[in-house]
Amino acid sequence: MSLETRAHTALHIVKGAIVKVLGEDAKWSAGANVNGGHGRITVQYNRKPTEDEVNEIERLANEKIKENAVIEIHEMSRVDAEARWGDWIYDLFPLPESITELQVFHLPDWNVNACNKLHTETTGEIGKVSISKWRFRKNKQLLEVSYDIE
Ligand SMILES: [Zn+2]
């Protein structure tokens, strides 16, 4: 399993932890980047989180990894995916209407997202996640969380 695949899968784990800690107001992803073992997820949010909240995001993400949960990948129609998960499968920027079949990443009770990239089969394969940096951009109402995996 490549480092980038592990770091990409970690995006979903960190995102799930962000929503667990900050709530549904943080559900909309506005961007994601992976480069080697480094990743950054950006979500729309309405305030600067506290240090404690960011520490809790990191702790929960690593707890989910240690659980070694099985990741489900579903190939399904967009209509069925929306019927099952509603707008949780989407990011802030909409998918083109022309896309009618989706690959859906689903980690039950944690994260669901239409995503056509490669993922690890279990969360344990990711390794340890360390949040290296974060910042809240007040004028854009965006929270950026950067992490490294070991
Ligand atoms: Zn993905």
Give the secondary structure arrangement, pairings included.
Layout: H1 3-22, E1 29-35, E2 38-44, H2 51-66, E3 72-77, H3 78-85, E4 101-107, E5 111-114, E6 129-137, E7 142-149
Antiparallel strand pairs: 1-2, 2-7, 3-4, 4-5, 6-7
Helix pairs in contact: 1-2
The protein binds zinc ion (ZN).
Which overall shape is indicated by the principal axes computed on the Cα atoms?
Answer: globular
**CATH class category name:** Alpha Beta
Biggest sheet overview: 4 strands, antiparallel
Average pLDDT taken over every residue: 97
Number of helices: 3
> What's the structural domain tally?
1
And the CATH topology?
Answer: Threonyl-tRNA Synthetase, Chain A, domain 2
- Provide the structure class: alpha+beta
- How many β-strand runs? 7
CA-CA gap between termini: 13 Å
Unreliably modeled segments: none
CA radius of gyration is 15 Å
Strand order of the largest sheet: 1-2-7-6
The CATH architecture would be: 2-Layer Sandwich
Listed once per kind, the bound small molecules are: zinc ion
Secondary-structure element string? HEEHEHEEEE
Question: Concise description?
Answer:
The protein is an alpha+beta fold and 150 residues long. Helices cover 29% and strands 32% of the residues. The protein has a single domain (3-149), classed as Threonyl-tRNA Synthetase, Chain A, domain 2 (2-Layer Sandwich).
Summarize the structure in words:
This protein is α+β, with helices and mostly antiparallel strands. The chain has a single domain (3-149), classed as Threonyl-tRNA Synthetase, Chain A, domain 2. It is built from three helices and seven strands, in the order αββαβαββββ. The protein has helices spanning 3-22, 51-66, 78-85; strands at residues 29-35, 38-44, 72-77, 101-107, 111-114, 129-137, 142-149. It has a four-stranded antiparallel sheet with strand order 1-2-7-6, covered by helices on one side. A hairpin with a 2-residue loop joins strand 1 (29-35) and strand 2. The chain is globular and about 40 Å long. The chain starts with a helix and ends with a strand. 35% of the residues are buried. The structure holds zinc ion (ZN).
